[in-house]
Amino acid sequence: LTFGTTFGLQEFVILAAPLILTGAAVVVGQRANLWNVGGNGQLFAGAWAATAVAFGAPGVPGWTLIVLMLAASVVGGAAWILAPAFLRAYFGLSEILSTLMLNFVAGLATSYFAIGPWRDPQSSGGVLLSRPIVDAAWLPMWSIGNWNISSGIVVAFGCVIVLALVFHHSLFGYRAMIIGVSERAGAYAGMNVQRTIMGVLVLSGGVAGLAGGVELLADVHSFSPSLSNNTGYIGIGIGVLAGGSFLAAGVLGLLIAAVLALAESAQLVGVPPDSVFLVVGAMLLASALGDTAARYQIVRHDLLLHPRIAPEETPGALSSGEAK
Amino acid sequence: VNSHLVEVIIVGAIMSGTPLLLAGLGELLGEKVGVLNVGLEGIMLVGGASGYAIMSATGSANAGLLGGGAAGLAYTALFFSTPVVLLHTNQVLTGFALWLLGIGVSKIIGSPYEDVPPAASLSNVHWPWASDAPFIGKVVFAYPWPVYAAAVLPLVVWIVLSRTRHGLSVRAVGEAPDAAEAVGLDVRWRRMLYSSLTGFLAGTGGAFLTVVYVGRWSPGVTAGAGWIALAIVIISNWRAGWLVVAAYLFGVLASLSDVGGALGWPIRSEFLAMVPYLGTVFALTLWLWPRRGQRGRLEAPAALGGLWSR
Lengths: 324, 310
Description:
By secondary structure, chain A is mostly helical.
């Protein structure tokens, strides 16, 4: 139903890009054993910053504007995680709670901006929507045969590859890994633990912000409270399932986007649109179980060759086995 | 000060603090045996949706409340306590799974009842002569029964945990499971029981929110209440008494946007609604300030979050 149609494939690719990015944002944190669960808020902040650039710099030509807006979205996302990152690095405040709380703040701020200053005068009644950004700022669609592929997916995979290189081949990535295993070991080795934690979390927020920029430029084209579509929350599942691997986040992002696209089609036959949470939650539970199961080994007791309890074969000994 | 304003604030605080108190108390019980459940929000959503569905089906608000609790208990026992306690999965990971799964499960349970008006409601307990008293009658003796039950429950928990032999064994399991095992206590049974009780209380809290306080089910109706409950357990230093205080204080913050709307304050409700979330981060920072440099949670049960296997 989904992949058979060109529309389905276009939808799938458009959905995948922000999911991959929010998933990658969680993986960034996981590299240092930190939990950035505020992806949804950072996504909003990124989209907000990109929208602000679009409205604030109307005369800038096409590609410059796109680059500026994407850069603004990274800065917006990074700014949104700044306070939680600082509190975690210097006071040890749980980043899980602080980043999560800011999701709700961002959601509320978003509805204020969509109703208030940036409201689309043509949107009516209960629809909260900002004015659309200029056409020149839309990420282009590429035609391959008769398919139109959103270039947002290229931004997403480009970001994933850069992050993988940074975390596997740079001193910063190495520091993050060591501090993730043990902050004290990192400090003992002379690393600046606080600054590394700040760096990892701010980078994570920036990547989630970029997800908001891509969502805005490639898909929705106007700022609204429904912009995130829970992408930040689904991204947590993707990031955890990826288990510290950026490329896995990319693949899982595509997979979950397929589930989402299928759910959108299956809505017609009565499947709730948000059943993706069921899929992601079940996958997470399965991965938690698998994680544990991987530490065990199945041992087969061959009763004929290695009898565990054989009281009748040990005559003379006081057999406790007979009591059982 | 306008006495009407004070009344509205106190009533709002106690009504919106009650779900926080129930869920926080549930989390406290789980953490006392060393099981950290970060999926509180998911349990509250499942309890809230199930409670509303049961209330709609039976026409009884009491059945809805208890049904929400039972749903939370079953959901937690099956998808959290069993994997964590019996199969030794990572508590944080399983908690996140419980949360995200709960968002999906609650949407499916609740979808037929979305924005359907409530089939029943709870009337306030009428206390002889006290309910008619001028000020006290409006702020203390004017709630449905679950509010009083939730306010008394922490006292029961405190007595059981700190004044009984059973409570001592429960705390031992959370502080030093190996020692508890060595003296012959059944660590797994206590962990299963108390981490499942987390589900019952959080589920009841969610059902209170949808059935009694809001009177509606809509997806995400808890709006972070589960996470705030998690935070107040930390802020209250894992003490049931302080938990009551913290829950009602956060109730004040959580009800600000309703109160502001009711009294016509000249400030946008979006900004008032941000207060509980910013307040949580602020309160956690304040709590941590005198403890910085001590490497975290000194008052937390020592075995909190760790795996334990025989």
